[in-house]
Design goal:
Blueprint (H helix, E strand, L loop, with lengths): L12 H4 L4 H4 L6 H12 L10 E12 L2 E13 L4 E5 L6 H8 L7 E6 L2 E2 L5 H11 E5 L10 H11 L4 H14 L15 H12 L6 E5 L7 H18 L2 E6 L10 E6 L2 E3 L13
Parallel strand pairs: 3-8, 3-9, 6-7, 7-8
Antiparallel strand pairs: 1-2, 1-4, 4-5, 9-10
Helix pairs in contact: 6-7, 6-8, 7-8, 8-9
The protein binds adenosine-5'-diphosphate and magnesium ion.
């Protein structure tokens, strides 16, 4: 359910009726892929609902000269529609590497990722471009806004890339900026906005093309704790209102409470999250 629904009873069919990729990209002839699709269709363990994200046996090793760093070691998990998952772990634990493989920004050494029925790890470059444009919205620690463009123009960029008609684009820009509480600031450039406001613009931009998955890599890392908390609360509310799934990397323990689920990374592997530092086992 999107907030503009009551105001626009007849949404443009090309955007609202995006085909369910599971139905569209059925059999691939690739045995592993077909096996994943079968599991996506069954998914009995989550009320019969299919996972939006499937990560299986993901491994990524960085090599610099003779030195090898295992950034991801056999990471597997699934994320279901509408879930907000916090990915936690100290600096260097593999959070960014994991999110980059899921969003199609980088390729793993082995393992696979399926997002909304699309086999991300097997997609050729044009398929990855489309994935990043239409299926996944990204939010980064450093906001990543274009300095010479206004807030409204920044939010409009993904819709220019997807050739959304101009009136629809303007309407959605306005709606998104009001959703993040910035309708009064739409003509300001990034340098005329606070850090928290810039991140709100970036979040609005990430939602522009109605992504199914929102990937946020330490979205509050450059903000003070109070502003950071507001941004996380905004993400929490948007995941509910827009019906997206969100993967949010953070090492801020105060933000974990807002997540539906926490995945903890340690040296590139998923581990069972500690309930709290106080109850963690003492070192032997
Ligand atoms: N491009 C790269 N080249 C070499 N090593 C890298 C590269 N990117 C990340 N690493 C290493 O991989 C590990 C995981 O990094 P990263 O995913 O950025 O962790 P996090 O986001 O949790 O801080 C770290 O040891 C890091 O130094
Ligand atoms: Mg990182």
């Amino acid at each position: 359910m999107t907030p503009e629904d009551p105001a626009s009873p007849a949404p443009p069919p090309d955007r609202e009726e995006r085909p369910d990729q599971l139905g569209q990209e059925r059999r691939s002839g690739h045995p592993e892929h077909d096996e994943t699709l079968d599991r996506l269709e069954r998914a009995p363990e989550h009320g019969g609902e299919s996972p939006l994200v499937v990560v299986q046996g993901l491994r990524k090793v960085y090599r610099s000269g003779p030195k090898e760093v295992v950034a991801l070691a056999d990471v597997s998990f699934e994320a279901y529609p509408g879930e907000l998952i916090a990915i936690r772990g100290r600096s260097g634990s593999g959070k960014t590497t994991l999110l980059n493989q899921i969003g199609g920004l980088d390729r793993p050494d082995s393992g696979r990722v399926v997002v909304a029925g699309r086999p991300v790890t097997e997609l050729p470059e044009p398929g990855l471009l489309e994935l990043r444009r239409d299926v996944v919205g990204f939010v980064f620690q450093s906001f990543g806004l274009i300095p010479v463009l206004s807030a409204a123009e920044n939010v409009g960029v993904p819709m220019r890339l997807s050739r959304t008609p101009v009136t629809e684009r303007d309407e959605r820009v306005r709606m998104l900026l009001s959703l993040v509480g910035l309708e009064k600031h739409m003509n300001q450039r990034p340098y005329e906005l606070s850090g928290g406001q810039q991140q709100r613009v970036a979040i609005a931009r990430a939602l522009a093309n109605r992504p199914k998955l929102l990937i946020a890599d330490e979205p509050t890392g450059q903000l003070d704790s109070q502003t950071g908390r507001q941004i996380m609360q905004l993400l929490r509310a948007l995941v509910r209102s827009e019906g997206v799934t969100a993967l949010v990397a953070t090492h801020d323990p105060a933000l974990i409470t807002l997540a539906d689920r926490v995945l903890q990374l340690h040296d590139g592997a998923l581990v069972t999250p500690d309930p709290s530092p106080a109850t963690a086992p003492a070192p032997a």
